[in-house]
């Protein structure tokens, strides 16, 4: 699985990444592909199961993050893998069935190429049959919220029943989300009958074996030949590979590149021009973030963060506009809980204050003062002015210790007693002069508490 690439060492003083830059043949150095850092040689170390109920997704899934993802704020291409019928499962105790084949198997066996810049997410279908088009759409929406994804670089692939689901997804959504698709050993005739030449709005590279006795090769040759004859719209890049003498496993040779067809470089050759570039947060507009969504994700326009060391880029504002604003937890919280008070008088949904992220220590107030968390809000206009409002709520007063939380920006701080809080919030007004706000969350030295909290925030541009 050798591939042609250029390795360019970043030597300039002050660069943001002291690591190798990987630039694939045919791609310019100043392209929007991320810089990859901190290679380990073991892709399985970064392959983690996210079981059903532990995230805001309605599917359990496997997550692979490229080298260095946890140390930067870059946007990454997303590759969504849709499994076959045999890997259906409950998203929990059966989640490891995903590792039996396809891309998850390559990653689990440390045969995935580390220089590939994709965030790879592999959801498990628990509804029976082939993965539904709506499930794929919802999962991609979730992924774009929960991970730092370049929305112009979202790619889809599936095998067998997963390829059928991918074809059906394409018929329902064409280029609304994805930049290219690779269906393998699937049947796209129904998708073509439904959407016709509209499927050509997305580059398609389909694979099949001509001896496939499970899903006949006509499931690929039929729709592809029809699409190649279309003129309105004409194909962007519609192609197929039919393996002679190959039965119903044409995918492994495709995914491991042993058949000589580099689908990954092909994916990276496409960006979705229909995706709108993010815009700076406009005057009078807000972005809102819910931290700690175990009690349930908060509906749009809220942006949700479930990971105590997580991040999200291109937050949507209160008018559903994709913005340049991002949130990165650069110093992780110690944990999350669901013990906030939902009913509140601060004007936010109950799901925001129902749970929270916390930082502190069970060893007492003095030990707690040594703990901290940091949230960076970036993508701002340094010449603009912003207002930041913070929310936090936690039931009980920790045995009389209280939960006085200190929030600090540029040396200026505000304290909030979070215990049984339903009406209080903290406001920093007139924030300007920088493209990034660095917010520290600590146990206040003015109290006796052991824990500090953050449930949500609202950032408003006021100039």
UniProtKB/TrEMBL annotation:
The keyword Signal applies. Residues 1-18 form the signal peptide. Keywords: Signal. This is PHB depolymerase family esterase.
